[in-house]
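Sequence only, no structure available. Ideas?
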Amino acid sequence: MSDEYEPAYSELQSEPDNIEIIRDQIAALLAIDLNKQHEIAMNTLDPNDGDYDVAVYVENDDPLQYVDDATPGANPFPCVNVSLDSCDDDKGTASVNRQCWTAQFYIDCYATGNTASDEDFGTKAALKAWKTARLVRRILRAEPNTYLRLRGVVGKVGFKFQSGEPNNPRGAIRVKMVRITLSVDYVEDVEISQGVIDWEIVGIVTDETGRVILR
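Reply:
I predicted one. Tokens follow.
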């Protein structure tokens, strides 16, 4: 037996875990479908088409930092942020090479009601935040997006909704948030390519703020 430690890996471990790919997949599905909803709203001359112009962020829980108080209307809302909260291997092990995990994601839906001086800003913001959450739920629960289009890797997907307040409240703009807690059963120690992939985004492009950029 050698006393010299042998490193576990001889190559750079640069590939993302499945859980990171799943997080980015959620953001990609939302960005593409929300963009399509905005396009439909504009084409049908919906008077509230701005409610469908939803920005999607990854791992950015403070969109209020991009509010420009000096420029009316210069804010990132409505928007959603997709973040990974936790993952646990409490589902047991399918085999040595197939570790079954459960992950919890937060999808925070933000909206503002600062659009007209004669309206209740808080009420309007809450209604818009729930409207954004409704869009998110319908997109992720749509039949084509079952298993987040990663069958064989993703199993059961569960939803929980609750209202909340932004982490960084500011008096100049009234913002409300609806948090969707997404519970995802998945297999970690198996390559994505071994699953039954309906459609996959292989990495997403984000700007310096974490906003998803459609290609």
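The two ends are 53 Å apart (CA to CA).
Hope that gets you unstuck.
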